[in-house]
Structure to design on (169 residues):
């Protein structure tokens, strides 16, 4: 599977700000947008996902819905991204269209191996770097990414994330 190299994970203080930023990302050439809303009802998430689908469709940009596979299916997004605390990808897969992809978040080699065994399509490996004020987690850095990438035997794309980095490894 080929996955786009230029991604945008939505952000904003309101759902409407997410949409404005998605519009800007698409205008700037993002090839894939991940709608990442938190603390909104399913009804509001669906409303924003439909609007995001309209924007991304217009720009021929792929749309991934974060953490909500039912909404991903309903808006016919290209896929869903599953966080560590979300439902298992093996439970999600039968509920999606055959062409939809599933991504997963990992922080360790074991996380990556678990996701690969559950037949995800790509992995977001984090954190590459952390903001200076965050000392709660250890950043992987280039050496961590290299050692995990070298240890994995997979063709699945691994996407680095964290500390203002999102890069296909």
């Amino acid at each position: 599977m080929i996955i786009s190299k230029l991604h945008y994970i939505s952000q904003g203080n309101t759902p409407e700000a997410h949409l404005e930023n998605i519009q800007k990302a698409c205008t700037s050439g993002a090839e894939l947008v991940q709608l990442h809303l938190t603390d909104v009802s399913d009804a509001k998430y669906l409303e924003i996902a439909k609007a995001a689908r309209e924007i991304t469709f217009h720009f021929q940009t792929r749309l991934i819905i974060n953490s909500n596979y039912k909404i991903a299916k309903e808006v016919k997004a290209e896929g869903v991204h599953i966080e560590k605390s979300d439902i298992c990808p093996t439970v999600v897969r039968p509920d999606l269209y055959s062409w939809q992809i599933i991504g997963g978040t990992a922080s360790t080699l074991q996380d990556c191996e678990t996701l690969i065994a559950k037949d995800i399509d790509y992995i977001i490996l984090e954190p590459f770097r952390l903001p200076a004020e965050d000392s709660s987690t250890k950043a992987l850095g280039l050496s961590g990414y290299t050692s995990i990438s070298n240890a994995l035997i997979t063709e699945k794309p691994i996407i680095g994330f964290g500390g203002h980095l999102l890069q296909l490894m």
Notes: The longest helix spans residues 42-58.
